[in-house]
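Quick review question:
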């Protein structure tokens, strides 16, 4: 996620700042839900942060039970539909994180 954010800040600085601001907003439960977030994979507990107007960036995240919000990866939206490959990456990142930190 850090690489995505750093690259985004270089290529699209405004969108990069919006993603950073959106991630900070996740700390407040009042911001959970549309239009900022939406659940995209209920089975795996993965949600999507959405920011931007003309150019739209997405970042996937999940909640670590009672402690943290883990942001896994992001992309700049190119079409109307959810990028299934990016969602698959988020699922793999979450599985890896849970295995390393023994969460379920």
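Suggested answer, residue by residue:
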């Amino acid at each position: 996620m850090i690489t995505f954010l750093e690259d985004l800040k270089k290529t699209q600085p405004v969108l990069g700042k919006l993603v950073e601001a959106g991630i900070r907003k996740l700390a407040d439960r009042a911001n959970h839900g549309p239009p900022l977030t939406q659940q995209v994979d209920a089975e795996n507990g993965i949600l999507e942060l959405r920011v931007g107007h003309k150019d739209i960036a997405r970042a996937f995240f999940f909640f670590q039970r009672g402690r943290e919000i883990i942001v896994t990866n992001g992309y700049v939206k190119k079409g109307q539909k959810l990028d299934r490959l990016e969602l698959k990456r988020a699922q793999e990142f979450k599985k890896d994180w849970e295995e390393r930190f023994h969460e379920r």
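Why it works: The mean pLDDT is 91. Residues 2-101 form one domain.
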